[in-house]
Amino acid sequence: MSAPVGGHVLDLACPPDDVTAVHTFLTSVWDTEPSITPEDRMALELALVELTSNVIEHGAGGRAVACALQLEVGDDAVEVHLTDDGVPVPIDPAAARLPDALAESGRGLALVQMVVDVLRYERVADRNEWTVRRGLHRGPSGSSGSRSA
């Protein structure tokens, strides 16, 4: 990624925090980062809410979980690091696939993969570390462009 243009941080303690805090955080980010297109905003919001929701729902292991979300806006991409002190992730995110149409769960990581360029997971010491990266899409003169995700 190119040199960061803007950095934004959100710390969560779940409970009481939930994904509403992520929506509120991203609203404030978009207010200070007007160059990010609506399409990129929507894709990043979907990815980050899904990922945070998975951490809260599956990573807590029956206890509270603390998360930190660090979002860096560069000239050509947004990169996000989500760390949490939850239990280790038992699946390989790279292997995530959409389940059958009638399945009631299991879509989160597959959806995230569909809207970002990079989804990476590592267990480092006693923390889960997630990295999400999405290239920003602008027209030839730097104005907003469109892309099919």
The helix-strand sequence is EHHEEHEE
Tell me what portion of residues adopts beta-strand conformation. Answer: 25-35%
Q: Helicity range of the residues?
A: 25-40%
**Major beta-sheet overview:** 5 strands, antiparallel
Q: Cα-atom Rg, whole angstroms? A: 15 Å
What structural class do the secondary elements suggest?
alpha+beta
Mean pLDDT: 82
| Strands in their spatial order, largest beta sheet | 1-2-3-5-4
In terms of quaternary structure, the protein is single chain
Cα distance, first to last residue? 19 Å
Number of DSSP E strands: 5
Uncertain spans, ≥5 residues at pLDDT below 50?
139-149
Number of helices: 3
What is the 3D shape? globular
Q: Overview of this structure, please?
A:
- The protein has 149 residues and is an alpha+beta fold.
- Helix content is 29%, strand content 30%.
- It contains three helices and five strands.
- It has a five-stranded antiparallel sheet with strand order 1-2-3-5-4.
- A hairpin with a 2-residue loop joins strand 2 (65-74) and strand 3.
- Helix 1 (19-32) runs antiparallel to helix 2 (38-58) and helix 2 packs antiparallel against helix 3.
- The longest helix is centred in the N-terminal third of the chain and has 21 residues, at 38-58.
- It starts with a strand and ends in a 14-residue tail after the last strand.
